[in-house]
Amino acid sequence: MQVTIFGTGYVGLVSGTCLAEVGHRVVCVDVDQAKIDGLERGVVPIYEPGLEPMVRANHAAGRLSFTTDAAGAVAGAEVIFIAVGTPPDDDGSADVRHVLEAARTIGRHLQAPAIVASKSTVPVGTADRVREAIAAELSARGVGIEFDVVSNPEFLKEGAAVEDCMRPDRIVIGSASEASIASLRRLYAPFNRNHDRIVSMDVRSAELTKYAANAMLAAKISFMNEIAGIAEKVGADVEQVRKGIGSDPRIGWHFIYPGAGYGGSCFPKDVKALARTAVQHGHEPLLLHAVEAVNERQKGHLFELMLRHYGGIDALRGKTVALWGLAFKPDTDDMREASSRRLLQQLWEAGARVRAFDPEAVREARRLFGERDDLVLCDSDHAALQGADALAVVTEWKQFRSPDFAALRRTLGDAAIFDGRNLYDPAEVEAAGIAYWGIGRGRSI
Ligand code: NAD
């Protein structure tokens, strides 16, 4: 099928590439000329495992192209996806400005009947606004072309986006039109072979499904962080508690890891936006507010542990902290709302210096922070430790999991580890002569 995708970010680029991989002809449109020029030359602007070779192969095969020319891209498309960003507005609601701009662009250039499907995460009711925006443009042109607006929320995870796209758990299609659902079934058939993963529903339920999924996952994280806070106070180890509850199949093992708080471009903004939608419709979102509040507190917790270790903020002045991990989670270079950013600010405000390393996010950190005296961006985990007094770990990259604690003991001036992802066994660290501070590990506190 002939597909056009507006937005070549994490969602648009990965979805477009995966659709091309199974044989569709895909045109990716973006307003960012530099990004499009780079992609045409084979430069992939984000890190996603497996993505770059797939982009290059499909581009070379002529199934995947990149353009800023929306008119040409819209003209021949059977399905047009909107996958542009929906950042948080000042009041926490999702800013759908880019989505509506893409809709107007579609309306200005549509030449033949098409399905417009939103992959962007948008508040309930946005599909109606997209429909109105397209209709207004068509009527301004004095033409009547049939189109349908469908909600097709995206569930891929950064860090495993290609894998998620090629083998989705489910494909949610929100539409009242049997014909549109049938067309999207045809589009997704190559991803839907061994059992039916398509869940079709009405448009509003599909829009809400995406928020419900992310809010549930964020709630699980905040719940565990709440338990971790209690564990710390009562002298229990949340890692033992995690194993004790995860074995209950009604609870399960996924997403019950305590840590330095959730970040990224989705959970924080989606929980806020859902809460905002609830308030706007007269429902008080008590649980969503609590999920957010716990996460806000949690992002500052590693620094709290440092204050406890050093006996106050003054002792941190002049210290050098090695920071392992900058991305909001492993296998991505994305630092949007990453816990590392809060810790960096707190350390800088306390007068400490940071030597940071991340396998993929160093370039992004350089773009965000530029040159500053109190930050050295290092090219290896080992380099970050040189001259450091303590080590803080905020992203659970695999390569951080088994350090040589005896060597760390010799390198770290104050022999202290602040483990924001509970990667290490406190007893093993302490046996090496290093003070261990983890999340919810009352045993050692
Ligand atoms: P992103 O910020 O990485 O990319 C958005 C792209 O859209 C940018 O390249 C931007 O230049 C482009 N754009 C903006 N306005 C445009 C326009 N009018 N026409 C064409 N292109 C335009 O965003 P993302 O992370 O890919 O997220 C996109 C949407 O998908 C958001 O609503 C997000 O909530 C949702 N989502 C994201 C993820 C994720 O893991 N990143 C997962 C599921 C859903």
TrEMBL record:
The keyword Nuclease does not apply. Gene3D superfamilies: Cytochrome c1, transmembrane anchor, C-terminal (1.20.5.100), NAD(P)-binding Rossmann-like Domain (3.40.50.720). Residues 322-426 form the UDP-glucose/GDP-mannose dehydrogenase C-terminal domain. It catalyses: UDP-alpha-D-glucose + 2 NAD(+) + H2O = UDP-alpha-D-glucuronate + 2 NADH + 3 H(+). Pathway: Nucleotide-sugar biosynthesis; UDP-alpha-D-glucuronate biosynthesis; UDP-alpha-D-glucuronate from UDP-alpha-D-glucose: step 1/1. One of its GO terms (molecular function) is oxidoreductase activity. Belongs to the UDP-glucose/GDP-mannose dehydrogenase family. This is UDP-glucose 6-dehydrogenase. The lineage of its organism: Bacteria, Pseudomonadati, Pseudomonadota, Gammaproteobacteria, Lysobacterales.
